[in-house]
Amino acid sequence: MKKILICILLTLLLSLNVNVKYTMAKMKKDKTKVNFTMTENHTHFFIKNHNNPYYPTWLYYRFTISNVKGCTIHFQLQRITLTGDYITISQKKYTGHSFDLSVADQVPGTKLRNHYLHITKVSGCGDLGIKGVYGSQSEEPDG
Q1: Rounded distance between C-alpha atoms, residue 23 and residue 63, angstroms
Q2: Average pLDDT estimate for 101-119
Q3: Span 121-130, mean pLDDT?
Q4: pTM score of the predicted model
Q5: Which of 22, 42, 61, 139 is most buried as measured by Cβ atoms within 10 A of its Cβ?
Q6: What's the count of helices (H) and strands (E) in the chain, helices before strands?
Q7: Using the 8-state DSSP alphabet, how is residue 17 labeled?
């Protein structure tokens, strides 16, 4: 019985003294919800990047687009340089074959730079209903 108690006590002491480091991170999201009818041929959204420069940042969008049958839409995520130029970091074209279309993209952003999301109707488009979210997210250490 003494041996069992000693073994339990040693196991308990060893388990308390083991130095295990936990890596914890929290996800910081900056998102904007939109719900509008796109009547123009193009529109754009400003994505402010005010995150800490030492942690990775991602840009993203997720939209459901209605009235898109036979329509082609061009999405561009762009970085704004210090001189005001735009550098495309992601571009995608989506063509609708039914009434609704779901589009999404997520790409690494540039630290301490602002970004734009440009949406352009390419061909065969009328008024489009666009509903969804866009923004940036970053992973930062917890604590």
Answers
A1: 33
A2: 86
A3: 87
A4: 0.74
A5: 61
A6: 1, 8
A7: H
Instruction: Give the neighbor-by-neighbor strand order of the sheet with 86-95.
Output: 42-47, 115-123, 72-80, 86-95
What does the alpha-carbon distance between residue 50 and residue 30 come to, in Å, rounded to a whole number? 9
Cβ-count burial 79-101 (b if 16+ within 10 Å, e if not): bbeeeeeeeebbeeebebeeeeb
Is 54 a residue whose pLDDT tops 70?
A: no
Place of tokens 């942690």: 55
Amino acid at 109: G
User: Which residues make Cβ contacts (< 8 Å) with residue 127, sequence separation at least 6?
Assistant: 37, 38, 39, 67
Q: What CA–CA distance (Å, rounded) separates 90 from 75?
A: 8
Give residue 84's region: left, alpha or beta (phi > 0; psi -120 to 50): left
How does residue 68 score in pLDDT terms, banded at 50, 70 and 90? confident
Place of tokens 């193009």: 42
Report which of residues 116 and 140 the model is more confident about: 116
Please give the structure tokens belonging to residue 45: 């959204």
* Neighbour tally for 26: CB within 10 Å: 10
- CA dist., res. 91 & res. 119, Å (int): 10
Distance (Å, rounded) from C-alpha 129 to C-alpha 64? 8
